[in-house]
Amino acid sequence: MKLLTYLHQGAERVGAHIPGDAALLVDLQHAAALRGLESRPFDSMPGLISSGKRHWDRAAELVLRPPEESLIQLGEVELLAPLPRPVRMRDFSAFEAHGAAAGSIPEAWYRLPLYYKVNTLSIVGPDAVVRWPEGSREVDYELEAAVVLGTGGRGLSATEVASGIFGYTVFNDYSARDWQWEEITCPLGPSRSKDFDGANVLGPCIATPDEVEDFYNLPMIARVNGEEWSRGSTSSMYHRFEDMIATLSESETLVAGEVFGSGTVGSGCGFELGRYPKRGDRIELEIEKIGTLRSAVI
Q1: Predicted confidence band at 174 (pLDDT cuts at 50, 70, 90)?
Q2: CA dihedral 97, 98, 100, 102 (to 10 degrees)
Q3: Are residues 263 and 95 in contact, defined by beta-carbon separation less than 8 angstroms?
Q4: Which residues, 6+ apart, have CB-to-CB distance to 65 below 8 Å?
Q5: If you ran DSSP here, which 8-state letter would residue 275 be given?
Q6: Is the peptide bond before 19 cis (omega within 30 degrees of 0)?
């Protein structure tokens, strides 16, 4: 499934693309009610994620055989981030090439799942128009993948994490680079350089694992105003999601609905290319099998 959160007639709804017709959606809660099924698990994306595999399978059945009355044209709705308010979000650093572009990589990077905590109040969705942060001169995009955890727990093995992944999405981690270079001189990690309104763009959907098949073999492309700037692949991740998340679970309890970013793929940002987007530029980040995430900073 390719699952969506959207606004329709002022209400936040959960739906999915109809296979073979990307312009058509099924409203899952409405479809469940029409089929005489329990509809509560489909009233929000967090609700669906936490409802467990039985309801995930039921959603898949509704997508394959939707009642006619539950179908909506994509053009009639406003897409939101597929998970607008994650219970928690962290962004790893999993690509060696991106780390090397910023200088020598510390030995600890190869042993530890390093991350920073994302401001979940600054998350926006597809086609977002983000306000350029006042006072910054250099705003950059970052081409990343992200996973949504479907099953939490403590002391998870990498195999258990992999089987508990709910789905995958595209993540654009906008960064005010001039602010960031000053912040990283202090050993606290990024702060306002990544926390400004709209800095974290997720979408366009959450693609479930059956849609993606082999996640660690997906082309990743960034375009600015239609021109390709960056190209990479999930195959170049030095650290894999299941290993990093399993390590975190050794000392803390993880919960369903958490989101984890991959960090930037090699050459996946303007900093590595020696040029930055300008105000008003349209940014498109595409990951094969998942989709294309569009936004702009004005």
Answers
A1: very high
A2: 160
A3: yes
A4: none
A5: -
A6: no
* Helix, strand or coil, per DSSP, at residue 269: strand
How far is 22 from 77, CA to CA, in rounded Å?
13
What is the distance between the alpha carbons of residues 48 and 120, in angstroms, rounded to a whole number? 19
Tokens of 37: 């099924």
How far apart CA 52 and CA 209 sit, in angstroms, is 15
pLDDT for position 242? 98
Amino acid at 87: V
| Residue 94: closest CA among 220, 258, 206 | 220
Q: What share of the chain is helix, strand, coil (3-state, %, to 5)?
A: 30, 35, 40
Structure-token match 């709705």, residue found? 77
Q: What average pLDDT does the segment 48-77 reach?
A: 96
- CA–CA distance, 215 with 219 (Å, rounded to integer): 10
How far is it, in rounded angstroms, from Cα 198 to Cα 175? 11
- The 10s digit of each residue's pLDDT in 7-22 is 988 899 999 999 988 8
